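Tokens help. Our protein:
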Amino acid sequence: MTKQQVPSSWRQSGLTMLWLSGLVVLLDQVTKQWILNNVAYMSERIQVLPFFDIIHVRNFGAAFSFLSDQGGWQKVLFVSLALLISAGLGLMLRRQPKSMKRVNIAFALIIGGAIGNVIDRVMLGSVVDFLDFYYGNYHWPAFNIADSAIVLGAITMVVDSFFAVQQQGKSNE
């Protein structure tokens, strides 16, 4: 479909931010492939900084390994939820104006992160995590680029909501 064939309403919607979702998926999958090919599972640790290592672990659950010890049904649940949320956010992007940049970016980041982790769950049965931040013996649960995009998207949504409240307050004055 050429630019002239795409309805003008699509060009003016938040869908223009889907390139960011694609970039997140690409970066996430490239980094995970590198980990799969170069870092031994659960036994190798590459120290990058005194508080940050690259490792290779798998998450069979959700955030913080939630439900990871279940019999496998959680994979279907997490894939279904991620696809439903991504579709819902995509629909919202379609309906929002292009000018709502912060919230469109937030939705695109969340979609990209969700799809990145769905690819792992479908192809590998688990999510590859490799970013390990720690202080002394305390380690934050390992995570990946997709997880980072989801968190950054959620933070961006919260920040956007504060700006929306401020804008509303100014317009009511």
Strands lie at 45-49, 52-59, 127-135, 138-139. The chain has a mean pLDDT of 86. The longest strand covers residues 127-135.
